[in-house]
Task: structure prediction
Amino acid sequence: MKLKYSILIILLLIPFTLKAEEIGSVDTKFNLLTPNHKIIIEAFDDPKIEGVACHISRAKTGGLKGAVGIAEDTSDASIACRQIGKINIKEKFEDGERVFKESTSILFKKIQVVRFLDKKRNTLIYLVYSDKLVDGSPKNSISTVPILPWKD
Result:
């Protein structure tokens, strides 16, 4: 009984992270007996800005390490965000606030998307990058979404 409560407490302490929906993938390297290396395309909606959706493409390592979950994916990623409906800012947010995070290795490496607001140009900016505990990667990509009136 104590074990069940301990597991429940641990699960509640793990911070909520937005998971993306996988849209599709293409293989980049064939492996005969293990998963192929691939590029996956994922989508997610901005949790605080209704009417904005983002799509990410990123590398996914296959092979034996990928099959057992210990592979480290490369830092290559691309992002495209678009207005898909009337933009409604549901709650205040800070520049550089994380809107998406996913682990890309068993330890310490993750891909993240952060959001900024360019007030002067009335535009949302989304930045995707990969970081690591010791040394991150300068590889990155941005997408901008002008805040425009929505026509029904």
